Amino acid sequence: MRALVRETTLAAGDLIQPLFVTAAERGEEIPSMPGISRLSVEESVAEAGAVAAAGIPAVILFGIPASKDEQGSGAYADDGIVQTAIGAIKAAHPELIVIADTCLCEYTSHGHCGILRDGQVDNDPSVELIVRTAVSQAAAGADIVAPSDMMDGRIGAVRAALDDAGLTDTAVIAYSAKYASAFYGPFREAADSTPGEGDRRGYQMDPANSAEAVREAELDLGEGADIVMVKPALPYLDVVRRVKEATGAPVAAYHVSGEYSMLKAAAANGWLDEPATVLETLTSIRRAGADLIVTYYAKEAAQWLS
Question: Is the pTM of this model over 0.90?
Answer without folding.
Answer: yes
